[in-house]
Amino acid sequence: MPLVFTKYHALGNDYLVIDPKHTAADLTPEQIRTVCHRNFGIGSDGILSGPLPSKKAQFGLRIFNPDGSEAEKSGNGLRIFSRYLWDKKLVGSEEFSVETQGGVARAMVMQRGKIVRVEMGTVSFWSDQIPVAGPRREVINEPIHLRGERFNFCAATIGNPHCVLPLPKISADLAKQIGPLLETHARFPNRTNVQFMKVLDRHNLQIEIWERGAGYTLASGTSSSAAAAVAHKLGLVDRTVSVHMPGGKIEIEIGEDFSIRMTGGVTKVAEGTLAKEMFARP
């Protein structure tokens, strides 16, 4: 059976959607790494497998990182998957639900597929839920030493783990240098996504992202959600925040209970069939 895919990007964060109905078997981690490779495969920041059966939502979704590991949740992935469902006429203009390993999200496709809004769930700062090593506590402004330099970080979860570093100056180089050290740091038993955050004003912040299992990333929905929640927790921004990333901007609305509503764009790139020859060793 041919391996049919549809490719989208959400602000430069690209995923392949593969419907399990169109595949003979699940991809192995090695095959996922090959498919996502920019030179040896089609190239992507991950694979979305769905729609799947779900007892908790209308649709189920599994999310795979380009290193072959499985992610609990992805904001951009949820927007892309929502657009795919809309393209396949499985949903219309009504709100619908999607179950991921990181919980159930509610989504709505708008502006003829160009914009998707997702109710992402509630952010928690508690160490046992994220998780972060050590006694149970809200992880806010804790010190961590990397390469002889001290940083302060906050940690959060919105179904997947995040480490947010508020800084006066951020850059892609900083994310690429420090991100890998934080992703695999002993403080984070399940590894973590990392956001380097600069607050611009009460309604705008800027982030650079190192994504667990994917590396340096142009945009991320859960990273935007976590960074905005941390900035609000610290009293630095209001409840409506525009999160600026190298790939573009995501709008975040923060509820009183730190529930997150995310709104951002999705672009369809291509659809086609992956050749089995790609998996053959030369």
Provide structural commentary.
- The protein folds into two domains: 3-114 and 266-279, Diaminopimelate Epimerase, Chain A, domain 1 (Roll), CATH 3.10.310; 122-262, Diaminopimelate Epimerase, Chain A, domain 1, CATH 3.10.310.10.
- It is globular, with a radius of gyration of 18 Å.
- The protein is 16% helix and 41% strand.
- The two termini are 22 Å apart.
- Strand 7 (103-110) and strand 8 (115-122) form a beta hairpin.
- The protein has helices at residues 29-36, 75-87, 172-183, 221-233; strands at residues 3-10, 13-18, 47-52, 59-64, 70-71, 96-100, 103-110, 115-122, 142-146, 149-157, 161-166, 193-201, 204-211, 215-217, 240-245, 248-254, 259-265, 267-274.
- It has an 18-stranded mixed sheet that branches.
- The chain is of the alpha+beta class and 282 residues long.
- The protein has four helices and 18 strands.
Task: Provide key terms for this protein.
282 residues, alpha+beta, Diaminopimelate Epimerase, Chain A, domain 1, 2 domains, 18-stranded mixed beta sheet, 4 helices
Query: Average pLDDT value?
Result: 95
Total individual domains:
2
Q: Look at the structure and name the CATH superfamily of the largest domain.
A: Diaminopimelate Epimerase, Chain A, domain 1
Beta percentage is 35-45%
CATH class membership of the largest domain: Alpha Beta
Integer-rounded radius of gyration: 18 Å
Globally, the shape reads globular
Task: State the secondary-structure class.
Answer: alpha+beta
What summary fits the major beta sheet?
18 strands, mixed
Low-confidence stretches: none
Helix content: 10-25%
Sequence of secondary-structure elements = EEHEEEHEEEEEEHEEEHEEEE
Task: Find the count of extended strands (DSSP E, 2+ residues).
Answer: 18
Count of DSSP-assigned helices: 4
